[in-house]
Amino acid sequence: MTVAGVGVSPGIGHGPVYVLIASVPEPPEGATYTGDADQEKARAHAALEKVASDLEARGIRAGGEAKDVLAAQAMMARDPGLAVGVDALIDQGTAAARAVYESFGTYRDLLTSAGGYLGERAADLDDIRDRTIAVLTGRPMPGVPDVAAEPYVLVARDLAPADTALLSKEVVAAFVTEEGGPTSHTAILARAMGVPAVVAARGATTLTPGVRVLVDGAAGTVTVDPGEREVAEARRRAAARDRAIGAATGPGGTSDGHAVPLLANIGGPGEVKGALEHGAEGVGLYRTEFLFLDRRQPPTGAEQETAYRAVLEAFPRGKVVVRTLDAGADKPLAFLPHQGEEPNPALGERGLRLFRAHPEVMAEQLDALARAAVGLPAELQVMAPMVATVEEATWFTEACRARGLHSAGVMIEIPAAALRARDLAAAVDFFSIGTNDLAQYTFAADRQVGALSALQDAWQPALLDLIAAAVGEHGTPCGVCGEAAADPVLACVLVGLGVATLSMSAPALPAVRAGLAGHTLAQCRAAAADARAQSTAAGARAAARAALPGLDALGL
Amino acid sequence: MAERKVTVEAEVGLHARPAATFVQAAAKASIDVTVAKPGGEPVNAKSILMVMGLDVRQGETVVIRAEGEGAEELLDELAAIASAP
């Protein structure tokens, strides 16, 4: 049997299925027990203790900071006040599972009403509660195992970043989700980890836990209970592909010598190592949110300077494109309280718009960037997200110039900016197209809504048209730093459309490098023209592939 | 009843790691021990959920009380934890 989906991270994964339990149902209100109260209390205490010791054991295995976090969670499960509450409810006739649920609820309310850091701990409490209820009702434990005897294939309806934060290639052989698209968290994370992934695989969660499956992250297939020969053959093909890709080295460019610098998207200095290992020629998108999120106070200028300098030092001969803080109601910051809730965060006061409301935050960030670049040979470029008009672009450029930041650019993520790129080009030094957001705004399709993932497809002809419009004939260099650049087929088309640089999560670099090196600029241009002549995303992809024969040889 | 009044110095207040250390130390003792904000309702110092629920921030004062054998030593230990930066 084979389950089909969309391959979003290439490679071959083979292992037993682990189906992620999305949630543990709430035990019904008024549930009672049969038997005596002491027995029921003992059951509840034993379940809490099992959860506590399990969390503790996981912490000891993980070590470091995780050990302290999990030890504190174990203390919550062993909390004497909680036990008193559970006992009192059981004495009144409430079943153990319901008593646990209600007792946790008291503390949950206490923490939630305090807000801030404590409010966030409510989620920890829910996790402990659900684990305890799972033990009491004989259900599988929620969550993802972060250690395994052999790497497993993680199957879920959809995956939240929290589900996958602790995972690594050593634990997960492949990801398979029923929902999601090429830009879903699962897809981005899988590519960043270098783990094969298939999304939009209908019926995947009905797979029997433990059954062995073969996941082909390029073809988008999940084969149930494959034969040994089939697995060996798939691995052989994947290895041949890896060798072909590995053979392409050096700076990015087409086979006839048209240079296309291949850059990495990073979210902090910690990702520099991976970028260098995959041959990044620089950084095309340095997201700076990591410095600001989950904090009560903004980072100091000195702290920012250190984080920027670390990346500039790592690429002495390359360019480093830093994106200024991209926050808003979609990514809220504790120290920049929002004026009321926004009904549509994606359409709200985010990105550069937030800076216009709080110019002191941008001033501090730009000052820190200017100081970080002093005396370093790397080419620092600074760009602002969520720019719609020439007036906004000019405002940002002037703020950069005032600090001696020589290269100021803007992200093109809003159709208005793409359509009037010629006007914006006069105000800035460069553009970078964020294809994920550009698709979101072009199709009025929220990126977070899995059901709309087909509209998030960067092969949609409307999106290709907007990219062509953004590149234009104005002469201002235009890069792409969205996930579209990570697709070796689409990367050729983007170059054919006139895109100057491509930036992507580091593990995607080798395949894109090989894909480009296998074709001439003329072939890329032809593929782009053929793709734009189509009326559907699937048609565009097929037409481009047909015009790029070198991809077959690479197994892409 | 012995008591100590201490100002919490940790940047994160009596949350996270400081709270866990505080509760761990209290839980080792066989006698009852409570913690309260001045004028507030005392809570069981052996309960991490109650201690976190007090929401003690950096610079705030807490009153720790205990009674029985070893109360003074226990309070000294807890006061030291609560006031550690």
TrEMBL record, chain A:
Q: Where in the cell is it found?
A: Cytoplasm
InterPro entries in the record, alphabetically? Answer: PEP-util_enz_mobile_dom, PEP-utilizing_PTS_enzyme, PEP_util_AS, PEP_util_C, PEP_util_CS, Phosphohistidine_dom_sf, PTS_EI, PTS_EI-like
Q: What is its EC number?
A: 2.7.3.9
| Cofactor(s) named in the record | Mg(2+)
Domain (PEP-utilising enzyme mobile) ranges: 150-220
Similarity comment: Belongs to the PEP-utilizing enzyme family.
Q: What does this protein do?
A: General (non sugar-specific) component of the phosphoenolpyruvate-dependent sugar phosphotransferase system (sugar PTS). This major carbohydrate active-transport system catalyzes the phosphorylation of incoming sugar substrates concomitantly with their translocation across the cell membrane. Enzyme I transfers the phosphoryl group from phosphoenolpyruvate (PEP) to the phosphoryl carrier protein (HPr).
Protein name, as recorded? Phosphoenolpyruvate-protein phosphotransferase
Organism per entry: Nonomuraea africana
UniProtKB/TrEMBL annotation, chain B:
Described function: General (non sugar-specific) component of the phosphoenolpyruvate-dependent sugar phosphotransferase system (sugar PTS). This major carbohydrate active-transport system catalyzes the phosphorylation of incoming sugar substrates concomitantly with their translocation across the cell membrane. The phosphoryl group from phosphoenolpyruvate (PEP) is transferred to the phosphoryl carrier protein HPr by enzyme I. Phospho-HPr then transfers it to the PTS EIIA domain.
Q: What is the lineage of its organism?
A: Bacteria, Bacillati, Actinomycetota, Actinomycetes, Streptosporangiales
Q: Which UniProt keywords apply?
A: Cytoplasm, Phosphotransferase system
Q: Which SUPFAM superfamilies match?
A: HPr-like
Transmembrane segments annotated in the record for this chain: none
Please state where this protein is localized: Cytoplasm
> Is Ribonucleoprotein set as a keyword in this record?
no
Q: Does the keyword Cytoplasm apply?
A: yes
UniProt domain HPr: residue ranges: 1-85
Q: Which domain of life is it from?
A: Bacteria
Pfam families per the UniProt record, alphabetical: PTS-HPr
Q: What is this protein called?
A: Phosphocarrier protein HPr
